[in-house]
Amino acid sequence: MFSTTRRIPLPLRLHGAAIYVFLYLPIALMIFFSFNRSPLGTFPITGYTLHWYQDLAEEDFLVSAFWNSVFVAAVATPVATLIGTLCAFGLVRAQFRLKPLFSSLILLPMVVPGMLLGAALLIVMVPILGLTLSIWTAAAGHVVVTTPYAVLAVATRLYGYDRRLDAAAADLGASPWRVLRYVTLPLVMPGILAAALIVFTVSLDTFGVTFFTIGTQGTLPMYIWAQVENGVTPTVNALGTLLIVGSVGILGCAHLLLRRR
Amino acid sequence: MSVAQTAGYVAPRHRSRSRWPIYAFLPITVMDFVLFVLPMLIMGIASVLVIHEFHVEYRLTANNYLFFLGSPLYLSILGKSVLIAAVVTLACLVIAFPFAYYLTLLPRHVQRIMLILVILPFWTSYLLRVYAWMTILGERGLINRALLGLGILDEPVRFLLYNNYAVVLVSVYLYIPYCVLALYTAIERLDTSLFSAAMDLGARPRQVFLHIMLPLTLPGVFASFIFVFIPMVGEYVTPTLVGGARGMMIVNIVVSQFQALRFGIGSAMVFVITALALCMVLALRRMARLEKVFGV
Amino acid sequence: MTSRHEWTRRHMLQRAAQAGIGGAALSTASRFAAPAQAATNLQGPVNAFTWGGRIIPTEVADFQKETGIKLNFVGASGNSENLAKVKLGGGAQYDIVGVDALWVPKFYQEGVIEVFDMASWPQYNDMFDQFKNMSIWKVGDKFMAQPWAWSPLVLWYNTNHIKTPPTSIKFLWDPALKQRIALTRQQEDVIAWMGIATGAKKPYDMTKEELANAKDGLKRLMPNILKFPPQEEELVKLMADETIWVTALSAGGALRIKDAGGPLCKGFLPPEGYIGYFDGDCLVKGAAHRDAALAWMQHRVQAKYVMENFLKYRRPLAYRGPLDVLKQEGKSDLAHELFYDQPDLIAKMVVIGPPPNLGDYIDAFNEVAGS
C-alpha cells in the first residue's frame, strides 16, 4: 500500500474513481434533467428539450436573484479579502499572549450555524444600528462569514514565506513600504487571489446568513430555496447546469492563478 | 556592508513589524465586534431576560437555559446532532484518507487538476446538490430504477431517503471536499522515505499507517473536524429536506423556538451552541495547525 | 395536450376580461381611477413580503409598465417568522405582508399593520359576502387585509392504493398507510389536525388535556408519516410519484397531482372537522411606499389577474369573477370540485391562526417528532 514509486496500487485507483463517480453523479443527473421534457425535474425521461433554458431567460425574479448574488459576492470579496489579508499578516508576524484565543475567535463566524448567526445579525442591524435590510446588509453579513476563510488562505501562504527576502530588500535600501509593495505583496499575491476566490465561492452559496440579513432583493440561494420548497422545476436544473459551466470557466482561471505558486 | 549599516536598515523594519498588529487587527476587530460579538452579546443578554413574545421584562432569569439544558428531549436532540456529525466526520475521514493519499501519488500537474475536480461541486449551489440526491435516492429515483430494471428488486425500496442515513449520506457528499483538501495538504508534506524506511525495517503496512502516517497527518484530521464536524452539528437544510418525519437536528429545534416567538429560549440555545463551537475550535485549533489547511 | 390547456386558459382569460369590463361599467369609473392616479406621483418600489403563490409575473410587469413602479418580492415563510421580521423591519423594510386568517388580528394587535378602506376598489362588489363581512378582519368599515385566496385543507388520497373511500379522519391511523402520509411542516397546524381527530373543541386553542391527547395522536400517527415538507408543492410531487398516498392540500389538489403526472386522487373532508385558511395582503404600518402599495393592491385585483391567478393555482379566491366565468363555461362541476361555489364552508372550517399557547404547540410537535 505504501509505495514509494509512481505505481499506484489498483485498490487506491478504484477508490479514487469511485469518489469521482460519487461527487459527479448528482451533478450529471442535474444536467441530464435540465434537458428532460418532464416538468417534474426528475424521472421519467420523456424526451429532449431546451425549453427550460428558454424559461430561464424569462424568469425575471431568477435573473435578478442571480445578479443580486453576484453583486453581494462582488462587494463581499474585496472587503473580506482585504480584512482577512491584514489579519493574516498580523497573525503570522506578531506574537502576543492571547493569540490562540484571538485566532479562535476570528475563526468562529465560519463555524457558527448560519441560520443562528443570521438571526443574531438581524437583531443588531435593524433595531440597534438602525439599518434597513438590503443587499448591502447581506453583503456585510457575508463579509463576517467569509473573512475567516480569507485569513486562513493568506496565512497559509505567509507561513511558507521566507522572511529573509524582506530583510535582503531592506538591506539593499528599500523602505518598508517599498519592501511590502515590491517584494512581499507580489510573493503573497497567489495566496490573496486564492482567498478572494474562496470568499467569492462561499459568498455565492451562503444561505443562512442571507436568509435573515437580505432586504427585499433575494439572492440565488434564496430563490433556489423557495424553488426547492415549492418543488424544483427543471428550470432550476438548467440554472444549475449553467452554474457548473460557468464554474468550470472560473475554476480554469483559478487553476492558472494557483499554478503560479 | 558593515554591521552598523545593516543595523541602521534593520531598525525601521523592526518598527514596521511592531506596528503590524495594531493596523492589521483593527479592521477585523471592529468588524467582528460590531457584527459578531455584539450580536452574540445581545443574544446573551436576551437569553437571561424574561421575554414573552415581543415584550421584554428587564428581570434576570435562568429559565431559558433551564428549558434547554433541563430538557432530556432537547439534550438528546443535541446529542443526536453531535452523533450524526461525528458519524459524518468519521465517514468523511475514512473515505477521504486513501483518496487524499492517492492524489499525492499522482504526477504533480495531474494532482492539481484532480484537486480542482474535487472542489468543482462546490461551485454549484449547495441546495441544488441536496436536491439532486433526492432524485437519486427517491422511490422513483435513479437507484430504484436501476435495481428494478436489472431485476434485482420487484418493488422499489423506501429506506434510501427521508431518514438519518440519508442525512449522513448527503452530508458526507457535501462535506467530503473539505476533508480531502485538509488531508491532502497534510499527506502531501510527508516525507515518503519514512514509509520505505519503516517497511525496510520490517513494519507492516498497518503499522506504518498507525505509527507513522496517521500521527504525522493528525493536523489534517483535526482540521477536518473544524470544517466538517462543527458545521455539521449546526446543519439545517439537509435534515429539513432529506431527514424524514423524525429528521430534526438541533438547529431545527432552535429555529422552531424562534417560530414559537420564544426569543429568550432561542437566544439561550444559540448561546450554548456558539459556546460549544468556540470550545471545539479552541481545542482543535492548535492540533489542526489551521494555517496549513488551504495550502492547495 | 399542452396546447389544449393553453387554449382553454386563453379563452377563460378572455371571458374574464369581458366580465371585468362589465363589472367596471357597473361600478362607475372607480376601477380605472387608481392606476391613472398612480402614474403621476407615486414613490416606489413596493416591497411585498408574501407567499410565492400570490404573485404572477404578468401583473408585476404590467404594474411597472403602467406606473413605473417596481415590485420587489420576498418569499415569506411562516406567519410567526413574518410577524417577527415585520416587527423588526417595519414600514421602512416592507410595504405589504401576506398573512393567514386569524394571524391577521394578531398582526394588528402587535401594531405592525394598519387598516385601509377598500370599498371603492375594483372588484370590491365582486367579493364574497363572507369577506365583506369578515368582522375579525375589520375595524369599522376598514379592512386589516385585502382578501385573496381561501380553501379548506382537503385530505387527498391515492385511489390506486386506497380503494374504499374513507369516512372518518381515523383512517389516517390505518397501519396499511405506514410511511405513506406527509403533512406540511407548520407545527401548530399538524397539532391542530391531531386536535380535530382527538375531539378538541378549539383545535387552535386547546386545553392542556386536549393538547396531551393531540400529542398522543401524533405519536401514534408517526409510523405513518414519511415527512413534514416545508411547502405544499413538495406534497404534490410526493403524491404524484406515489411516494405518499395521503396528504392535506388546498382545493384543486387532485388536479395539481394529475398535472404533475400523478395518479387519480380523491378528496375527503372529514366529518370530525377540517382545517382551512383564508389569506390576505396587509398594509404594513408606516409603510415607506404606502400609496404605491395601495395602488399595487388595487392593480392586482383586476378581473384578468384574478382569473389568471385562479387558473394557475386553482384554489378558490375571495372574488366571484372566476366562479362566474366557470359557470358561464358550463364548468359548474369543476367549480364545485374546487369548493368555489361553497363560500359557506369558510364558516365551517377550523381556521388557521395563532394558538394563544403557540409555544406549547411547538413543544408538543418537537416532543413527538424529535424523539
Task: Give a description of the structure.
The complex is a heterotrimer of chains A (261), B (296) and C (371). Chain A is built from eleven helices and no strands. Chain A is an all-alpha fold and 261 residues long. In chain A, helix 3 (60-93) packs parallel to helix 6, helix 3 (60-93) packs antiparallel against helix 8 and helix 6 crosses helix 8. Chain A is globular and about 70 Å long. The model of chain A has no long low-confidence stretch (mean pLDDT 83). Chain B starts with a helix and ends in an 8-residue tail after the last helix. In chain B, a hairpin with a 2-residue loop joins strand 1 (49-52) and strand 2 (55-60). Chain B has a two-stranded antiparallel ribbon. In chain B, helix 2 crosses helix 12, helix 3 packs across helix 9 and helix 9 (205-233) packs antiparallel against helix 12. Chain B is globular and about 70 Å long. Chain C has 371 residues and is α/β, with parallel strands linked by helices. In chain C, 45% of the residues lie in helices and 16% in strands. Chain C has 16 helices and 14 strands. In chain C, strands 1, 2, 3, 4, 7, 13 and 14 form a seven-stranded mixed β-sheet that branches. In chain C, a hairpin with a 2-residue loop joins strand 5 (138-139) and strand 6. Chain C is globular, with a radius of gyration of 21 Å. Mean pLDDT of chain C is 86; it is low at 1-7 and 20-39. Chains A and B meet through helix 1, helix 3, helix 4, helix 5 and helix 6 of A and helix 1, helix 3, helix 4, helix 5 and helix 7 of B.
What does the secondary structure layout of this molecule look like, with pairings?
The complex is a heterotrimer of chains A (about 260), B (about 300) and C (about 375).
Chain A: H1 10-34, H2 51-58, H3 60-93, H4 99-111, H5 114-128, H6 135-159, H7 164-171, H8 176-204, H9 208-213, H10 220-229, H11 234-259
Chain B: H1 3-47, E1 49-52, E2 55-60, H2 63-69, H3 72-105, H4 108-119, H5 126-137, H6 142-149, H7 164-188, H8 193-200, H9 205-233, H10 237-242, H11 250-259, H12 263-288
Antiparallel strand pairs in B: 1-2
Helix pairs in contact in B: 1-12, 2-12, 3-7, 3-9, 7-9, 8-9, 9-12, 11-12
Chain C: H1 2-26, H2 30-41, E1 46-50, H3 57-67, E2 71-75, H4 79-93, E3 96-100, H5 103-109, E4 113-114, H6 129-132, E5 138-139, E6 142-143, E7 146-152, E8 154-158, E9 181-182, H7 187-197, H8 208-221, E10 225-227, H9 232-240, E11 246-249, H10 253-259, E12 265-268, E13 275-284, H11 290-300, H12 303-313, H13 321-328, H14 332-337, H15 345-348, E14 350-351, H16 358-369
Parallel strand pairs in C: 1-2, 1-3, 9-10, 9-11, 13-14
Antiparallel strand pairs in C: 3-13, 4-13, 5-6, 7-13, 8-11, 8-12
Helix pairs in contact in C: 1-12, 1-13, 7-8, 7-16, 8-16, 9-10
